[in-house]
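Proteins fold reproducibly. Next comes a concrete instance:

***
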Amino acid sequence: MGYIPHSPAERSALLREIGAASVDDLFSTVPRAVYRTEPPALPAPQSEIELRRGMAAMAGKNADGSRWASFLGAGLYAHHSPAFVSQLLLRGEFLTAYTPYQAEVSQGTLTAIYEFQTHVALLTGMDIANASMYEGASAFVEAVLMAERLSKKRSKVVVSKGVHPEYLTALGTYLANFPFQIVQVPLGPDGRTDAAALAAAVDETTFAVGLQSPNVVGVVEDWQAAADAAHAKGALAIGAVNEMFSLAVLKAPGHAGMDIACGEAASFGVPPSFGGPLVGFLACRDAFKRQIPGRLVGRAVDAQGHEGFCLTLSTREQHIRRERATSNICTNQGLMALAATMTLSALGKNGLRETAVQCLSKAEYFKALVKAKAGAGPCSLAFAGPTFNEFALRCAVPVDTVLSALEAKGILGGVPMARIAPREGAWKDLLLVAVTERNTREQIDRAAEVLRSIR
């Protein structure tokens, strides 16, 4: 079977129309010196049956996730996604739609986005949420830029070192050409941000204070301390979350005084997939909605009294005067936001909390094994602060040695901090371990046994 769409007659007709004698004439301007003298060394043609057989053999060489126990995290977490989610995402009206510019023919898309906004607002304890963003790092940057627009010509942003290093790198890249100062506050011995240092770093020139909880080493932070430090000097408080299941059992940033919430929502129905695609989110107080980046979908009533959905607010330069645009790089990850919406709708309040409790309980069980009398070999808990489903181990032997020992037993043991924070020498011996509802007790026991056996 051939895959060239045009017949010889059609190609001849096309050539006559453009005045070329042959296909070679179309490339006559290309110097002959750069032409290949020999055909490329490609394998012989195969039938579809042969090709499928060969591709299946290649796929068989991959590490099958069903045979491995995974404790990977560090910002992307492997949670269970209901089977119907991936199938409904394949529907043409969702899969092929770019963005709802024609609201009158996009009611399904707009309804789904509205539901996503509602879920995010409820989870974060905020008044309003936008129609999603690319991913957590750029969402954090946009939150900082939003806070700067809302400030009165201030020039400093104070952020905790507990914010994911990749988020901080993105922030530094974005602000490199702005006259803004970025001040990083260290973590204390328990893994939490040093509250005294945070308060001391904030002054009248500060426009934003950024905190992540659980932070990059898995420790749960105190939203209220950050909010108080910011508000005492007239700054805005930004709360970042990249494990959204934590909000089912921990206090939401909006309920603890934070002004803007942002981060990553991929835990809801979006697999890690080597780092993307993802789905960022951003929510805020109602008073700040005019400076929120991207777009908002709202619910309205038409002249006949029928309910409908529309783009209520769109602050991109395609829609308003460029000088008033809040961002010219952000858009919504509509398909991924739909996956998150369907997952949350399927779980409901009870399912959401049940999943979160499983994550918390299994992580605490793993930590208890590490702290047990027999110990976990050369690994110990790095910080005493409370955690949700992720914690850091301090390794007395090279982290790569620990990971290799686990991998030999079919276990992906975690993410080395040296990988995501290479400049932090004090973290080079840390291993981040994440536990989700997909991990079994047998897997956790086996991992702890391997850790104890390392010498």
Q: What stands out?
A: The domain at 65-81+348-453 is CATH 3.90.1150.10 (Aspartate Aminotransferase, domain 1). The first strand starts at residue 69 and ends at 70. The CA atoms of residues 73 and 434 lie 5 Å apart.
